[in-house]
Write a structure and sequence with these properties.
single chain; mainly alpha; DNA polymerase, domain 1; two-stranded antiparallel ribbon; 2 strands
Length: 201
Amino acid sequence: MASLMSPEESAGYDDLTRASAIPEFRDRFLANRQWAAMVRTTFAMTMLRGSEKSNVIPPEASAQLDCRMLAGDDPEEIAAWVRGVIADEHVQVTIAREPKIPNLSPPDTELYKATGRRDAAAGSGVVVAPMILVAFTDCWVFRRCGLHAYGFSPFVIDESELQRIHGNDERISLENLREGVRVYTEMLEGRWRAHRLAARR
C-alpha cells in the first residue's frame, strides 16, 4: 500500500510497530478511520430496545453493541472491559452469540496469485496486497472448514461511497457493477483455462 503513497505519506508504513510509538505518526495513522479500525477492537451501538409505548416506562431496556474483535483479543476480556466502563451493578453485560474468532488465508496460494496476475495483465496499476477487513465476510466460515478463501471486490469507489457501506443510501454505480461482473468472469475463465491445460498435461 505504501508504494501508492507519496514518500511523505508512506513514511513509517514499512514498520508500523516502530512507527506507532511516534506520537505524530500515530495521530496521523489513527485519523484515518479505516486504518484505525484495522489495529484495534471497535464497537458500534446498533440496536436499542425499550418500551412499546411512549407513556410507559419499560421494566427493562437493552442495547446491542456490534463488536469487531481484533485477532488475538479475548472475548471475555472485552466483555469485562465493557462492564468496567459502564460500572453499574444494575446493568448486565453478556455476549449475545458465539464470538467469531478472526482467521486468515495465506497470501501465497495459486488462487491469491491469480488475482494479482489478472490485474497486472490488464495493466490496471492495481496493487494486490493482503489486508485486515473490518467488516464481516463469509470467507470466515469457509476457512473454518479448512478451505482458503479471499475477499475480492473489483470496484473502484471513492471515499463518499465507502462511507455509505451498510449505512444511508448504500449503493455502487452501474459502471462499477458492469466492470465487476466482467472482472469476475475473466478471473473464473482464466482459472478454468489453467485447470484444463493442467489436466491435459
